[in-house]
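Attaching the record inline, Q. Sequence:
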Amino acid sequence: MRTAISALLLLAVAQPVLSAEPTASALPKWLGEQVQYYRVAGTPPVVITEREYQGQDVFVVDRTKACCDMGAVMYNQTGEAVCQLIGIVGSWDSRCKDFPDNNRMIRLIYEQ
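Structure, as predicted:
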């Protein structure tokens, strides 16, 4: 029993610690620039997450923390806006209506 507990503790300690702030090299260039903009500009609150949706890694820049009417935008890896949350309506546009029920959170990238 003691050996099993020791082994579990060793595994827990050996796991890498995730950084709250990813390095610029860990992000696509366009996204690193956007994060830097939000850090410096003092804009209204924003949350940027990386998610898996329809087999693709996407980035969601969510401004609803500041106001529900501000909405959110989903970007692909190259920075192209592929979908948006229409704030005043409260749902994603027709390109990704199923996003709320069919995505998986990968990581929090930035939160202000």
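The first strand starts at residue 47 and ends at 53. The chain is about 25% helix and 30% strand.

More tomorrow.
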